[in-house]
Design brief:
This protein is an alpha+beta fold. The protein is 31% helix and 23% strand. It is built from eight helices and eleven strands. The strands form two sheets. An eight-stranded mixed sheet has the order 10-4-9-8-7-6-5-11, sandwiched between helices. It has a three-stranded antiparallel sheet with strand order 1-3-2, covered by helices on one side. Strand 7 and strand 8 form a beta hairpin.
Length: 246
């Protein structure tokens, strides 16, 4: 049974979005609603004074698995920090840390969002990636996996570069699992420095629809981040050796 069979809502086609990428308002954050929306290329962006809005931006921000950029300082961090990473070892803690970030606009990860993604996680569709210094959680990210596309929702760090390390590790694991790309939704200056680029919405939707039923599972085992550091001098377009091009 697919998400379309169990979801009680029907979303407008993403091509009907306005200039800001807004597709519509309403629905809920039930697991079947969230999964159906992500499979259509939609994401909820809660706002405190309007019903739940759903967006599909054009262009879409993406990081292809051969397009990740690692600066010299980040490569040094990977080699020397001694950190390790896991998948889905502390999902609730990662979402909580992301929700507690001090943002000028406030957090969109309201309690209803946290509960919705936790339910989606328990069903095997939402995932976290944790960065550890021994037994201390120092950074991470979470998002939703739809076949070969991983849509990142938020990231955090308690230690310098830990969120960047989480992204590098995600790209490595996603490539190993046979994924296509990381969807970051919007290209910010920070994400652009890591290789995010704009992709026309129609092209993103074509890739999503073609890979959303693929059996892609992130390897969950604990791994040292030093394995992600390229050996020798590398330009800023390097990517992990086992990442696959999209």
């Amino acid at each position: 049974m697919t998400s379309e069979d169990t979801c009680r809502w029907r979303f407008p086609d993403p091509s009907t979005a306005d200039g800001d990428g807004l597709v519509g308002f309403g629905a809920d954050l039930a697991p079947e609603t969230l999964l159906h929306a992500y499979r259509q290329g939609l994401s909820p962006w809660p706002h405190p004074v309007v019903p739940l809005p759903w967006f599909s931006p054009d262009p879409r921000g993406v990081i292809s698995l051969d397009g990740l950029r690692t600066s010299r300082s980040l490569r040094q961090r990977l080699r020397r920090c001694g950190w390790e990473t896991t998948v889905d070892a502390a999902f609730d803690a990662v979402v909580t840390a992301c929700a507690e970030l001090d943002r000028p606009e406030g957090t969109w990860i309201v309690p209803e969002m946290r509960a919705g993604y936790l339910r989606l996680h328990r069903l095997g569709h939402a995932h976290s990636l944790e960065v550890w210094h021994h037994d201390e959680l120092v950074g991470g990210l979470y998002g939703v996996g739809v076949g070969g596309v991983f849509t990142g929702e938020s990231m955090f760090h308690y230690a310098t570069d830990a969120s960047k390390v989480a992204l590098v590790d995600l790209v490595d694991r996603l490539g190993e699992a046979g994924g296509l790309l990381v969807d970051v939704q919007m290209v910010t200056e920070h994400l652009a420095s890591l290789g995010a680029r704009p992709m026309p919405r129609h092209e993103f939707l074509r890739l999503l629809h073609g890979s959303r039923d693929a059996a892609v599972r992130l390897p969950p085992d604990r791994r040292p981040v030093a394995r992600l550091a390229p050996s020798g001098a590398q330009p800023t377009g390097v990517h992990p050796s086992n990442a696959r091009p999209s």
